[in-house]
Design a protein that fits this description.
CATH topology: Purple Acid Phosphatase, chain A, domain 2
Structural class: alpha/beta
Strand order of the largest sheet: 4-5-6-7-9-8
Order of helices and strands: EHEHEHEEHEHEEEEEEEEH
Radius of gyration: 18 Å
CATH class: Alpha Beta
Strand content: 25-35%
CATH superfamily: Metallo-dependent phosphatases
Shape: globular
């Protein structure tokens, strides 16, 4: 039996061309990506789209994305990210009744791999989190299909350090990253975690588990610039292969001139995070 393979997409950011916050033609980029995917032989078994499927989270954008991926020729595992909305995704992508705002946690077996997807979004926030009920759900799912290798799909990557990062909006909040590490510690059936969010390729070994962050299909973060968040032209996708020896990822970048698309002061992002956290802490008191 051939080793299972998959395509890793992330940060697709589908939206309307007149969206002033989009900055790139994500539909044209996806056309190029799909053209490249069609050339892969043998055909991959499935695709993973690890969040920020749309730019504004509106049902119309999810419908547009569904049409764009209709001919991809393989099952697609969807996660949602901070640019997505649960209600918009459930209505536009899943065809559910308007208004449903439940986290989108799910799992399935594809090509002999148990794929577990966690919803790390926090409505209104840039950074991610995993709530206690989701950890309980994860523990139950990890006990299923004990004979199969597992991949986790989470839009926000776990924080990698041993102390809080000042720019913790780049991943799952620190305390949740620690709890996730504790749950996964010593599990050799977890072959990788597939993520997005930070808009650049980054491969890490986190407590013995490969964490794969993809560049995505929207824009690239210029990681050589550290005094602001500088976004430039850039897109690509990954091809994963799971051998008995472990996970391999190959990258397929699109040609790019790396022209600047936009630039964000880090102070603005940090202020936004602080406002969201302050509102979250004040909410229970306000409710009383």
């Amino acid at each position: 039996m051939a080793d299972p393979t998959f395509v890793h997409l992330t940060d697709l950011h589908f939206g309307e061309p007149d969206d002033p916050h989009l900055h790139s033609d994500t539909e044209a980029t996806m056309d190029q990506i799909l053209s490249n995917i069609a050339k892969i032989e043998p055909r991959p078994d499935f695709a993973i789209a690890s969040g920020d499927l749309t730019n504004a989270g509106d049902p119309q954008s999810y419908r547009k994305l569904t049409r764009a991926l209709d001919g991809i020729g393989m099952p697609v595992v969807y996660a949602i990210g901070n640019h997505d909305t649960r209600a918009g995704f459930r209505e536009g992508m899943l065809g559910e009744a308007p208004g449903s705002d439940m986290p989108y946690d799910h799992d399935q077996v594809l090509a002999g791999i148990h794929v577990i997807t966690l919803d790390s979004t926090v409505p209104g926030a840039i950074g991610g989190a995993i709530e206690p009920a989701q950890f309980d759900w994860l523990k139950t799912r990890l006990a299923d299909h004990a004979d199969l290798p597992k991949l986790l799909v989470i839009h926000h990557p776990p924080m990698l350090g041993e102390t809080q990062d000042p720019d913790f909006w780049r991943g799952i909040r620190f305390e949740d990253s620690l709890r996730l590490a504790e749950i996964l510690k010593g599990r050799d059936d977890i072959k990788g975690i597939l993520c997005g969010h930070i808009h650049h390729d980054r491969f890490s070994v986190w407590h013995g588990i490969p964490v794969i962050v993809g560049l995505g299909q929207h824009a690239a973060t210029d990681i050589l610039v550290t005094d602001r968040l500088r976004m430039v032209q850039g897109a690509g996708f990954g091809i994963g292969r799971l051998r008995p020896s472990g996970l391999t990822m190959a990258l397929v970048p699109l040609p790019s001139d790396r022209a600047e698309l936009n630039s964000y002061p880090l102070s603005m992002l940090r202020a936004h995070v602080e406002q969201v956290e302050a509102a979250a802490h004040a909410a229970p008191e306000h409710a009383d």
